[in-house]
Every structure is written in structure tokens, then in C-alpha cells.
Amino acid sequence: MKRLTLLAGIATVAAVTHHASQWVLTAMFWWADRYRDTSIPDFSLVGKAPFVGVRLVELATVAGVPAFLFISGNFAAFAMRSTPGGQPWKAVLARIRYLFPPYLLWSTVMLTIRWLDGQPLGGWNVIRLLLTGGAAAPYYYVPLLIQLYAISPFLVAWITRRWQLVLGAAVSLSFMISVLRTIFLVSPGLLPEESPWLGGLLNAPLAAYSVWFVVGIIAGTHSAGFKRILSIGPRSWLALTAVLGGMAIVEWEIVRRLAGRQWFSAGITLFDNLFLIALLLLFLSLAKSPDALQRPLGQVGSHAYGIYLSHVPILEVIARGLYHFAPRMLGQPLLLYFVLVLGGIGLPLGVMGLLRASPFRRVYAYAFG
């Protein structure tokens, strides 16, 4: 359990850094006129060191959500074993009750920001955004997790009996979606773009990301076999991660040029997903993290859900604040990363600590889980 808490801490830092990348790119391409004489969008840095650096950071940190799903799948396996005889549904409902109130609160915060920014928000549109996690791009994770928990009793039962079949189906579906998304990027005319079922499949997080939840359940229900896989050793997983990471970078650049695009997010192509598998196994194969990192990572990991939800508006406020009051910082990617990540993790932890020590500590669970 301690190892999973540390993994949650790493995943949280990765998720915040990954989402900070979007603001670094915004500053690089769309806000460039705030710190140098140019017209926007300015894509002159594409292919140069700052651009490549952001790409490397984005690839290295894309594992945040897969790691969270792995941890959640492992928790689901434990919860199902601990509540036999029809009780699993109580565990599912308890988890959903834990997830939903903070999600609703922070989604409302983001929708309010959008409304103040001049975006029209009708009543039915608000409901749709809340159901799909559309209030902010990272929030898709919560409806996805609720769906996975809702079907977890069935998944645990199937995996307990036929884990190879379930894993094979989940991996095949995930890789098929990666291939189809790549085809759409490179040559959208090769596939029936207007097909509702195909469009729904390619944009369904449940289909694309369920494999990580499934792997987490397998690790929880067949722990001995999973430990044998990890016993290969961190050096081997590190070497495989490095090789697959290099192949993912090359693949991404080839697809980007063929598609005629300046950028697309990591995690879409085939080698991105292979890299994620190796990276996750590398983290899990490490016997322990350095002593100096265990306490801060454990602290971050134990507050992962609250940080994940609250860092989204915090990053936006910090980035927009720098745009208005410190525009020169926008042209320094490393410094911008540092400020965004520090604020995205430090401010939520600070607010959580103050709230727990205040007379309003009873509302803590509704705000941060």
C-alpha cells in the first residue's frame, strides 16, 4: 500500500506537470507577442530546443492518469475481496460518493470561469459537461473512473477466472484505438469520419483507458504472477522504457509532419502507449524511492484526488496572471514550468491544511475528497 501511495504521489506530480505543458505551449505559440516583437500564432520554435524540451516533458509525464487508473483498479480488487456476498456494490457506491462531491464543486468553479470569460453556457449544456467531464479537459478522468468502478464487480469476477482473456481484450481495444487515431491524424479520408459509432469509439475514454484499470485489478487479484513480472528488475525496465520512449518521439514527429500539424497531445500513438506500459512497470519495479523523496511524495500521494481537481483552475489563474503582470516569464519555459507546477501542487496542499485546521473542516471531504 505504501508503494501505491508513492506511485500516487509520482502520478500527481506527473499530471500537474503534463497539464502545465499546455500553458507552456500556449505561452510559446499564442502569447509570444507578450514578450517579443512578433505576430501570433508564432510557430517559429517548432523543432527547436524549447519545443523539443516541452515534447520530452509531455511524454515523460503522460503516465499520470494511467497510473491513477492502475491504483484505482488495485483498490477495486481489494474492495471486492473485502466485501463478499453481495456487498461489492456497497463499496462501489461508497467510492462514487467519495468522488462526486469534489468533482461537482471544482467543475462548477471551472464553468464559472468559462462563464466569466464570456462563453455561453445553457442549462442542458452544463448538464452535458458535468456528465462527461467537459468543464475542463482533465476532468474527463472522474466520469471515467466512476464508470469503471460501476462495472468493477463484473471485471473483478471475470479477471479472477480468466484474466488473460480480459487483459487481451482490453489491450487489443486500446491499441486498435491508438492505430485508428493515428490514421485519422495522418489521413482522415481513409476512414469514414462521419461514422457515429467510430467517432464515439475514438472519443470514448472508457474504451481507450480501461486497460490500465484492468491491469490494476490483475495486479491485485494475481499479485504473485505480477510480482514475477516486476522481478525482471528496474534496470531492464529502464532500458525498455528508454528505447520505447525514443521510438515514441520518432513516431510522434513522423506523424506530426505527415499530418501537417504543429502539435498533438502525447498518449495517442501506438509507441506512446507501449512506452506508458514500460514506464509504469519501471516505477512499480523500484524497491523504494530515495529517502529524501518518500515523505513529500507520500504527502502528495495521500492528497492526490484533491490536488488533481483543484490544480486545473489554479494553473489557469497563474498562467493568465503571468500574462497580464509578468509577461517576460512566459518566454522562459523552465521557469514557467517551475512556477506552474509549484503552484499547482503547493497551493492545494496549503489550502487543504488550512481547511482541516479551521472550523470549516467538516466540508473538507466535499471539497477535496
Describe the protein's architecture and organization.
This protein is mostly helical. The chain has two domains: 1-61 and 288-369, no CATH class; 69-281, no CATH class. Helices cover 76% and strands 0% of the residues. The chain is built from 15 helices and no strands. It has helices at 2-29, 49-61, 64-82, 88-116, 123-132, 141-186, 196-202, 205-221, 223-230, 234-259, 270-285, 291-302, 304-325, 333-356, 364-368. Helix 8 crosses helix 9 (223-230). The longest helix has 46 residues, at 141-186. The chain is globular and about 65 Å long. It starts with a helix and ends with a helix. The model has no long low-confidence stretch (mean pLDDT 87).
Give the SSE layout.
Blueprint: H1 2-29, H2 49-61, H3 64-82, H4 88-116, H5 123-132, H6 141-186, H7 196-202, H8 205-221, H9 223-230, H10 234-259, H11 270-285, H12 291-302, H13 304-325, H14 333-356, H15 364-368
Helix pairs in contact: 1-2, 1-3, 1-12, 1-13, 1-14, 3-6, 3-8, 4-6, 4-13, 6-8, 8-9, 10-11, 13-14
